[in-house]
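Handover notes (outgoing to incoming on-call)

Open items:
1. Sphingoid long-chain base transporter RSB1: sequence verified, structure written out, both below. Nothing else pending on this one.
2. Nothing else urgent.
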Amino acid sequence: MKNFRDQCTIDTCPLSLSYWAYRPSLAANGTFIGIFFLSLTLFICQGVLSKRFLGFTIAMVSGNILEVLGYAGRIWSWYNPFIESDYLMQIVCLTIAPAFMAAGIYLCLSRIVVTFGASNSRIKPLSYPRIFIPCDVISLLLQAAGGGLASAESHSNQSPDPGDNIMVAGLAFQVLTLLIFIGLATDFAVRTFLRVRKMGEEEALDPAHARLRASWAFKGFLFALAFATLCIFTRSVYRVAELSEGWTGHLISTQKYFIGLEGALVSAAVLSLNFFHPGLCFREGYEERAGWGFGKKRDAEMLHEEEKGPVVD
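Sphingoid long-chain base transporter RSB1 structure tokens:
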């Protein structure tokens, strides 16, 4: 079915009739696509150089590819905001991209637990990815399915609300998953702090990783991971609120909110993890023991740590 917007251009129709209700900023979106392309390149190079954290690298590369595609759609829409395909491409790609980045973040916590000592955690190290990665996959599938359905409905000149509702459900599940993750990570940090204060570092922490814990790179990585997690969480809360209003709501029709709460936050998250890439940060002070990528060495150490079991105070 033909859409009336197919006949529109910047010169012939008001922006209020476009898919956006505004003209996407060329400067802002050009900046974001440059940032994500740079981040994508860095993650590939860092993954090759570190030869570790393959899962993390794949997750971050996938997320950045989707970000680049999404902002390409926004840039093309600067030339003509009445083109449906560009609008649909950006809304789907930019909605699901941070789910991949969240997966990368989830993979890191088990390594952090092993570095400080599995006895400080309520659950075993490998339980973290086993819990949160499936949750992230569910969130991603809901968002992708909802985005596909909404796109098909929009293309058929039908209401995208059913598909949009599925996307919101996926995003809400992502927010819940991130909230639980933040809670467990905070609990681990508090328990570790209290046990160190009570027992001393030599008793409370794994002595095998003392050099790694003392390195500036590892400390920077901990800060970067916490910062990136909060950025992705805040962005996801915003997208739930935005899409809950539908595709014509106030939030989705106001560009400044998108720039500040989507583009800026996700950019900050990926760049912080570029500066403190886990594969490079864990290398300092931790060269010879089990590899922190994928393979028998890493699995052997982490399973050994699991055998110690969590301590329940």
